[in-house]
Amino acid sequence: MTKNVAIVTGGSGGIGAVVCSQLVKSGFVVAVADMNTGEAKKVAAVLGGNAFPWQVDVTQELSVKALFDQAETIGAVSVLICAAGVLILPGGERPLIADMNIDTWERSFAVNARGSFLCSREFLLRCQKRPVDHGRVIFIGSSAAQLGGYRSSSAYIASKSAVMGFAKAYAREVAHLGITANVVSPGLIDTDMLRSTVGSSGDLEITAKSIPLGRIGTAQDVAGAIDYLVSVNAGYITGSVIDVNGGYRMQ
Ligand SMILES: NC(=O)c1ccc[n+]([C@@H]2O[C@H](COP(=O)([O-])OP(=O)(O)OC[C@H]3O[C@@H](n4cnc5c(N)ncnc54)[C@H](O)[C@@H]3O)[C@@H](O)[C@H]2O)c1
Fold first, then answer.
1. How does pLDDT run across 86-126, given as a tens digit for each residue?
2. Which CATH class is domain 3-244?
3. If you measure from the C-alpha of residue 39 to the centroid of ligand 1, how many angstroms do you get, rounded to a whole number?
4. Does residue 151 have a pLDDT over 90?
5. Any ligand 1 atom below 6 A from CB of 193
6. What are the boundaries of each domain within the chain?
7. Considering the entire predicted model, what is its pTM?
8. Which residues have a Cβ under 8 Å from the Cβ of 228 and sit 6 or more positions away?
9. Residue of higher predicted confidence among 78 and 207
10. How far apart are CA 44 and CA 106, in angstroms?
């Protein structure tokens, strides 16, 4: 029997690593795909025989194709989680628009938006050639894109907004293949990315008090939502945004 393979980009990051662990528990063979190969190897080693560490730079077309080629040696890729992302804070400070330089703007879009486009396009091309059952794509948005963001930058907010818009176009175009595509939009989740904002924005404990559920989120909170969305039970949910933010933003 062929195995169901899930690719998790940013798979060695704070959220990605926990998503990899959750998907292995749910029976997937997982490609821990990250630019940081050393960390990806550590994550895969902990997860055992059903996780493979693979290097990818999501901004590069050929690198993304190579990742899918490798993953398909294991089995059909039926799940893609686009969790690779960057929040660039030059000098540890949140850059205001007046100070935003082109490199920060372009790099934010290259990783967050182009990376999600390239990976999901490759997933679509492979599924067109070789249809999969219960194909699932999860994009990672951000409450920063929904709220204007207090800790992140305009480049991050704009690039995540691009991802969230693209996801709807994508969901529409892949629906006839039986593939669902959704956005998980985390609020404040305790990872290195969030902690990189603390210098410029104060204490997380104080911020936690402004969240209705009274705490900063965990990577497992995000992984739990993703685990549901990739399940067979979520088969009629597509083009949706699932907020995982403790009530920080309600719509
Ligand atoms: N932590 C939060 O509060 C929060 C909130 C909203 C959204 N998010 C989003 O969740 C996702 C995961 O964030 P995280 O908190 O785990 O951050 P993280 O920095 O811990 O992980 C990001 C991962 O992406 C990888 N990466 C960066 N550029 C890459 C590239 N070009 N190719 C391949 N991999 C690359 C990094 O090596 C890292 O492992 C990101 O998309 C982030 O924007 C995070």
1. 999 999 899 999 999 999 999 999 999 999 999 999 999 99
2. alpha beta
3. 13
4. no
5. yes
6. 3-244
7. 0.98
8. 234
9. 78
10. 31
- 19 alpha carbon – ligand 1 mean position (Å): 12
What confidence category does residue 150 fall into, taking pLDDT thresholds of 50, 70 and 90? Answer: confident
Q: Is the distance from the beta carbon of residue 216 to the nearest atom of ligand 1 less than 6 Å?
A: no
Select which of 156, 170, 236, 248 is catalytic: 156
Q: Confirm or reject: Cβ of 12 under 6 Å from ligand 1.
A: yes
Active site residue 228: no
Distance 10 CA to ligand 1 centre (A): 6
pLDDT reported for residue 201: 55
